[in-house]
Amino acid sequence: MLAMSIIEKYNLNYNMEKCIKLALIHELGEIYAGDYTTNSISKVKKHILEKEAVEKLLEGIKFKNDFIELWNEYENVESKEAKYIKQIDKLECIMQAVCYGLDAKYINGDEKINIPCLLEILEEIKEISKNNEIPLCNRNNVP
């Protein structure tokens, strides 16, 4: 929903259907593997767990589809849509942390956001969450 809303609000030039597919296929990997941050698990281990989960979920589908190719496209950031959805995933994580009362400036991942409208949204989120709590994992390293 976030990806679609931002495309529509900012009139972005992304293939909406492809973005929706990429977002959904990415989430499939987290059904069995879980939604880990790279702070708690290595990127390689996360990739392996998610790939196994996607393959397990899709093995029962008996019609021709592009689901595995889309998952690989997302994982390898092979298109502008994959880049967009990757950054939306990071932005959503930050938004969720802010909903829990944390200050967005202390949430990892914002350095991976570089699409101008997403940076604009990120700055608004940081402003809104200013003076919220510092996450427990960052309390010893407060700037």
Overview of the molecule:
The protein is mostly helical and 143 residues long. 60% of the residues lie in helices and 0% in strands. It has six helices and no strands. The chain has helices at 2-10, 16-33, 43-58, 67-75, 80-99, 116-129. The N and C termini lie far apart (34 Å). 23% of the residues are buried.
Notable characteristics:
143 residues; globular
Mean pLDDT across every amino acid position: 86
- Return residue spans where pLDDT drops below 50 for at least 5 consecutive residues: none
Order of helices and strands: HHHHHH
Instruction: Determine the fraction of residues in helical runs and give it as a percent range.
Output: 55-70%
Distance between the termini: 34 Å
Number of strands: 0
Question: Helix- and strand-based class?
Answer: mainly alpha
The portion of residues forming beta strands comes to under 5%
Let me know the largest β-sheet. Answer: none
Shape, principal axes of CA atoms:
globular
Q: Compute the gyration radius: what is it? A: 16 Å
